[in-house]
Amino acid sequence: MKKYISLTIAAVLAASAIGISAVADDEIKVLVNGEQVVFADQTPFLENDRTLVPMRAIFEALGATVEWDGETQTVISYDPISAVSIVMQVGSDKMFVNDKAVELDVAAKIVNDRTVVPVRAIAEGMSSKVEWDQENHTVIVTKDIEPTEGAPVDVANPWREFASLDDLNAVINKEAEIKYAVAVPSEPAEIEAGGYRYLDTENMAELVGRWEVGAGADMVIRTAPGDKDISGIYGGKKQEEYKLSNSLVEIYKYENTIYAVWSCEDAGTVFSHSVAVTASDFDATDVVKILVEDIETNHPKG
User: Fold this and answer.
1) What pTM does this model have?
2) Tens digits of per-residue pLDDT, 231-273?
3) How many CB atoms lie within 10 A of CB 134?
4) Same fold for the domain at 7-142 and the one at 159-298?
5) Run of H or E including 285
6) Do the beta carbons of residue 58 and residue 77 sit within 8 Å?
7) What is the CA radius of gyration of the chain?
8) Domain 159-298, second-level architecture
């Protein structure tokens, strides 16, 4: 069965398990209004001075609903107490609190087949007070338990799915402030597209597919107008960098995933791109370089 993966995951994910630099600390505890939260599957751990915990247990301890969209690796939650919706995607450095983007110090990720999330960001997004007890290695969360008046909010997955590139580009050119289009790479690429997605809040489009070369490889192209890297990726070891037209391309490797990030300018507008290719049986560096050159040369914009 073919496996299609999103960029933010492809950059750091292999076989549904992610490598992390942090070491789990079995002694870390989380208290919500004085009650210790039980994490049965995965113990909390520290990464970049932030505590990450299994998502379902912490959301439910805070009184929120939680849903998991496996297709886009997205957490969707609603807290009736604070009337707050939270949406976050594995690997992304942003979460959306009532549709407003909030920067994250540490992204949600998958560890031992469990999605873990930064407890402070989640709790504070739900209007809770968060403290860290260094002596006892304990996160202390204080939350108002009186529900906010009003009907529950239906929290939808922010990614919109499309059956074809034509459908995707029709929406982009109707709704985007800056017009652009997504294109399948030209020959010699042989791409079997697996999905087309659009994230309204970021004016970002994504093509997920399969590169039929050698043993085959999962690949993702993500693009959007912007003045900074939009990949949301991290981790891995930098392999090289090179100039292409007016763009600086950086190539990284994480296990069997090769990914590149760069931005190119066209008519004064910056378009950020990211490409990731995961291949278990061959080095995908040349494939990534071909995709980068193709997008830089042929990507419709303006």
Assistant:
1) 0.56
2) 555 556 889 999 987 788 999 887 778 889 888 776 567 788 8
3) 6
4) no
5) helix 285-298
6) no
7) 20
8) Sandwich (2.60)
* DSSP sequence for 213-227: STT-EEEEEEEEE-S
**How crowded is the C-beta side of 247, counted as CA atoms within 13 Å?**
25
* Tokens coding 27: 């002694």
Q: Would you give the DSSP letter of residue 147? A: P
- Give 86-139 pLDDT, tens digit per residue: 998 888 888 889 878 888 989 898 888 888 999 999 999 998 999 999 989 999
Assess contact for 76 and 157: CB atoms under 8 A. Answer: yes
Q: How far apart are alpha carbons 230 and 209 in whole angstroms?
A: 19
C-alpha distances (whole Å) from 94 to each of 11, 54, 107 are 16, 18, 7
Cβ proximity of 161 and 205 under 8 Å: no
Compute, in degrees rounded to 10, the torsion defined by CA atoms 101, 107, 113, 119. -80
**Tokens 């549904």, residue?**
16
Among 69, 55, 76, CA closest to 118? 55
Domain ranges of the chain: 7-142, 159-298
For residue 113, the one-letter residue type is D
Cα 129 from Cα 255, distance rounded (Å): 38
Cβ(175)–Cβ(181) under 8 Å? no
Q: 163: burial class by Cβ within 10 Å (0-12, 13-18, 19+)?
A: exposed
Q: Which two tokens stand for residue 133?
A: 């007890």
CB 254 within 8 A of CB 236: yes
Q: What's the CATH number for 7-142?
A: 3.30.457.10
Question: 3-class SS at 121?
Answer: helix
Quote the CA–CA distance of 79 and 173 in Å, as a whole number. 34
In which residue are the tokens 């922010």 written?
158
